[in-house]
Amino acid sequence: MPVGITVEQMANRVEGLFRSIGSAHSIAELVFIVGHGSHSQNNPYRSAYDCGACGGRPGKVNARVFALMANKPEVRSMRRQRGIVMPDNTHFIGAFHNTGDDHVDIFDLELIPDKLRGAFEQKKAALDQALKINAFERCRRFANTEVFSPADALEHVDERTHSFFEPRPEYNHATNALCIVGPRELTKGLFLDRRSFLVSYDPAHDRSGEILLKILTPVVPVTSGISLEYFFSTVDNETYGAGTKLPHNIASLLGVITGHSSDLRTGLPQQMVEIHEPVRLITIVNSTRDILNQIMERNQGLSHSFRNGWVRLVCYETDRNEMYVLSQSGEWEKWNAENEELIRIGSSSDWCRNERGNLPFASIVGSSEMHRIPYLH
Q: Which of 23, 55, 290, 370 has the most CB atoms around its CB within 10 Å?
């Protein structure tokens, strides 16, 4: 019997990813495939910060294996036959983002072609800078923490993950409120205050909605599961959450208990949700109402999530430039939002500096001068 997966199965997975995110017709020469997970010393809830789509495990193996599959000559040949357009020398790099200390491990560096070494060093420098800025944005939510630059912030979050005395190593996923499914042009240049899941999808290459169905089938359970565990753990932390983590003990590697004896605590501890607002996730999908109605008819799980109000569904129709909200009665209602002003900012770091609470969304324009511009939702 064959061991592992066949070349055709590899090609199917590679093709499926690029078609689902709308990149089958334009792929760069150097592509990073980045999984995520978290490691910190004082965190018995480790899987709560790992990858929900990976079954609560880190995504490092998935990223590395995908890159190795995508680089196989046989898979490249099948991609070309199936209409996946990319340069002949396109190379995939597997990597892993530790969301606790904001560092990225890059795998199989020795496999990078010599002619792409310069491009890799350039992209690696941009990635390193992005990690520093991400750490800076995270640090503003920590109490009694002062950092004055992105570089200081990266050093600080690294220290937090290695401290046995730090009950709040990270706040990732806290304050989640949105999931935006569409081309990344919709959110390019927007500061969303780390409150949105961003799912890439191009409706222009999916007139039937088949790709969207494949995207929403795993995305909605994962994002709504994260949202709802934070929702209920915030609404009643003792009943649906886990209370303070300070007296928690790990029981038989199955879960945690309070003190030396209690029922297993099934929710999230106070230190993970204390800055969270208990709101239901709003999922904005760039599609049409007809396609979304067909998807809900075909997938009862999605229908129950949307029609029963566990997740608020919004359809953004590009042709009309209008948004429609799925009401509790199951009807689509036009979102008649008034013109509002979107603050214009030079950088997210400037906008976050010395701020602790949630910030309004803003437009990043690359200038230190801030002023207001009209913005239509």
A: 23
